[in-house]
Here is the input.
Amino acid sequence: MKSFKIKYAIIPICLLIVAIVSFSASSLFNSKKVQNNNKDGQWIIKEVYGDSGSIESAIATTVPHWEEMSVSQQYSEVEYNNNKYYSRTTKIERDKIGNKIGTAILSGYDTYTDTRYNKNGYIYSVNDLSQECVVAVQFENDSDYYVYVNSHYKPATLGEFMEDLNLKNIVSFGTIYYNYWDTNLEGNREYSNIEFYDVDDNIIWKILFNDLNLENIYSDNNSGTLHMSNDYTIGISVDIPLLGYKNISISLTDKGYLITNILDSGKAFYIGENKVQEFLNYIIDNYDGYKIVHVYENKEKTTEENSTKDDTVVMYDITNNTTTYITINSTKNNNNSNSTSPYDPTKN
Here is the structure.
């Protein structure tokens, strides 16, 4: 999941950037749980093991050859009804396809041969989703359909956002991440990452999405204000299989903002500090919280303050305009799984 400051300039569609940030070796995926004995006693310690050595930070750049890409990677943009849509490189089933709404000539560029290609395509609506948000493309002489999203889409209200994307029926929530600063017994500021599993989706909808009249207040001009958070943030992992999204995020700040970049651009709604605190209180009171502690070969434990940058693999794929954060199995129904926090859009 990438930052909200989306840049819409044309970029080479073939570029794939993989950033490896001091990633620990294979034993990272082992864990155990022991009862927490810290001063408040409310968290269960979840130890995540890894090698003490780490790989130096690196960025690997790969430009696929034209023939190595799928057709929706080759032709990554389409224009329809004065909107520009970007490929999610995700196929969509025929039963999700609505009416044929237009035709287009899509253009693609091969950086190796300095060759530009054109291909005819047919544009379809997607059932139960607004054409302002999503369309499907079927290429000439191809039986498959591909998802394209409008990254410039900006809903006026939370209700419009939910209705246009049919969010309740396409979103699946996963791990919840509570990240906060606290003062430890030595008097030092310490960053903690707490994970909650299997939180009821209905509670999330009920508490956080109940006021459909809330205005979308995000813009590039006020993004700095929206990112301000003094004490804590909450991240909710989000999957939207229909649109090809995996482990992106809806985030809450202690300043009362609900922020997301579903459809790859920022959207923010002020739900109020009390509402955010109500949600936090609910998950703390009703679910076990697991505090992530990293343990390396030398058995030294390091809190998230020292390791938050050590165990993340980031894959930014410009071909389909997405960023993947490799986590330690943060899916639901697996309380013994390891996971690390997805990108928190409330932080720069």
Residues 180 and 232 are 4 Å apart (CA to CA).
